[in-house]
Specification:
Blueprint lengths: L2 E3 L4 E10 L2 E13 L8 E11 L3 E3 L13 E2 L5 E11 L8 E11 L10 E14 L8 E4 L5 E4 L2 E4 L19
Parallel strand pairs: 1-12
Antiparallel strand pairs: 2-8, 2-11, 3-7, 3-9, 4-8, 5-7, 6-7, 9-10, 9-12
């Protein structure tokens, strides 16, 4: 079910990327917005406000996973962001528990010309990498894409409404002229 938002709203979308065991070099996540029917996207990406990881996952980016958000690059029209994760190392060898990198992407809802109430905008995330080395290996590797590893996007669909909803205070009397 899409999450209802209004022009002027700020919304955070959570993206979790499954990280395979071993070393994933040149990793990045790209989040794209799509699906709107308004003339231009009423939802734009403001930036990446946070990055964290589960136990055993580390990045070689300066500042570790906490420093990853600073390298995020938002496209000119605001409908895409690429977050370089650097080389990820998943040192956890417990196959029963999957490790992740979690990103919080901040979105802004604009009042654009031709806004279509009920428009639905979807966030889609793609993980890519130069190569994946198995734990303990120093050569070889294979490219990684989101088709091979699961991505979960929390509350990815946003449904637009034309204006704010007005609710009277329950303590005040309301008549027909108040709306």
């Amino acid at each position: 079910v899409p999450r209802q938002v209004f022009p002027g709203s700020a919304v955070d979308v959570s993206v979790s990327v499954g990280v395979p065991e071993g070393t994933t070099s040149g990793a990045s996540v790209t989040v794209d917005l799509s699906g709107w029917t308004s003339g231009t996207s009423p939802v734009v990406i403001a930036g990446v406000s946070g990055v964290s990881g589960s136990g055993g996952v580390a990045s070689d980016v300066s500042g570790g996973l906490g420093g990853v958000a600073a390298g995020a690059v938002v496209s000119g029209d605001g409908t895409s962001v690429t977050v370089p994760l650097g080389t990820l190392v998943n040192a956890d060898t417990d196959n029963s528990v999957g490790e992740t990198v979690d990103l919080t992407v901040s979105l802004s809802v604009r009042d654009v010309a031709g806004l279509v109430p009920g428009d639905v905008v979807t966030a889609v995330a793609t993980l890519s990498s130069v190569g994946l080395l198995s734990a303990g290996s120093t050569s070889g590797g294979s490219a990684v894409s989101s088709a091979g590893y699961g991505l979960v996007v929390g509350a990815p669909d946003l449904e637009l409404s034309a204006g704010p909803v007005w609710s009277p205070s329950p303590a005040l009397p309301v008549d027909a002229g108040d709306v």
